[in-house]
Amino acid sequence: MSAKVGRVDHPVVAVHNLEKTSEQYTRLGFVVPPIGKHREWGTANICIMFPGDYLEIRGVGDPTRFLAGLDEFLVHGEGLSGVAFNAKSAAESYEAGRASGLGIAPPKHLNRRLVLEDKTLDLHFETVMLAHDLHPGLTHANLVEHLSADQLRQPGWMDHPNGVVAFGRLVGVVTDMEGAAGTYRRLLGAAHVEHVSGRIVLTLEEGADIELITPAEAASRGDAQPLRGDAYIASATLLVTDLQKTARVFERNGIDFREAREMLAVDPLHACGAHLYFKQA
């Protein structure tokens, strides 16, 4: 058995200053919606939307309230700090995980309020936290069920000048490949875990996949982040409609990037610590 884990719903980038981040990600060519706030937590965020997934950029709104580990992560700087997987039913995922003997918490309600020019969005979720040892290489992970999915994407929010339409891959670093493969077989089911040639690929039937690599491989790609320890999210790849158009946006906006394995790699200093790659869809 396994937990009922769906596609990658959204990776998370942790940042110190959401206002400055909004300006920077606009320069990267994204349509950046206004900042929202979690009513039950002390976190605030920006959600950059794509048709099937999105990028959450999370910052501290109220440091006196629950921050879901955000403050601890930011001690070592900004960057990719976690991933949320979709759950069609948070309750069913929890029951399946519990029946499988997994470290999984009961669903909790979360409300995100977002003030727009013409209306206020009250977005509601059920979130299920996973024990830290259930997601090696992903820093932080949880499941999320959207209760107001019809409001999540507003007109114009997906018309990104850089042409991004989806995530293609997340890359995490682990040192114990055998242990990580076994853990993900328990979480996802053996059919979704491929362990060959010193790396692991996790396939989730739709949306982005996940690649787990060694610290040495991360270093060879230029994505090593030793301050994060020996298990962390190293990078994320976004799919675009026209890679040349994406490059022109970067050049016009003064974004430093390089070509890497038929992709464009943005300097993490220009993406608030996140190692981002852009690839032709």
Folded structure, characterized:
With 281 residues, the protein is an alpha+beta fold. The chain starts with 7 loop residues before the first strand and ends with a strand. It is built from 7 helices and 16 strands. Helix content is 21%, strand content 36%. Strand 6 and strand 7 (120-129) form a beta hairpin. It has an 8-stranded mixed beta barrel with strand order 1-4-3-2-6-7-8-5. The protein has an 8-stranded mixed β-sheet with strand order 10-11-12-9-13-16-15-14. It has helices at residues 18-27, 70-74, 90-99, 149-152, 177-188, 215-221, 243-252; strands spanning 8-14, 36-38, 43-49, 54-60, 79-86, 108-115, 120-129, 141-146, 164-173, 193-196, 199-202, 209-213, 232-240, 257-260, 263-266, 276-280.
End-to-end distance: 34 Å
Shape: globular
Topology as H/E string?
A: EHEEEHEHEEEHEHEEEHEHEEE
Order of neighbouring strands in the sheet with most strands: 1-4-3-2-6-7-8-5
Strand percentage: 35-45%
**Stretches where pLDDT falls below 50 for ≥5 residues?**
none
Structural class: alpha+beta
What would the keywords be for this entry?
alpha+beta; 16 strands; 281 residues; 21% helix; 8-stranded mixed β-sheet; 8-stranded mixed beta barrel; 7 helices; single chain
Question: Layout of SSEs?
Answer:
Elements: E1 8-14, H1 18-27, E2 36-38, E3 43-49, E4 54-60, H2 70-74, E5 79-86, H3 90-99, E6 108-115, E7 120-129, E8 141-146, H4 149-152, E9 164-173, H5 177-188, E10 193-196, E11 199-202, E12 209-213, H6 215-221, E13 232-240, H7 243-252, E14 257-260, E15 263-266, E16 276-280
Parallel strand pairs: 1-4, 5-8, 9-12, 13-16
Antiparallel strand pairs: 1-5, 2-3, 2-6, 3-4, 6-7, 7-8, 9-13, 10-11, 11-12, 14-15, 15-16
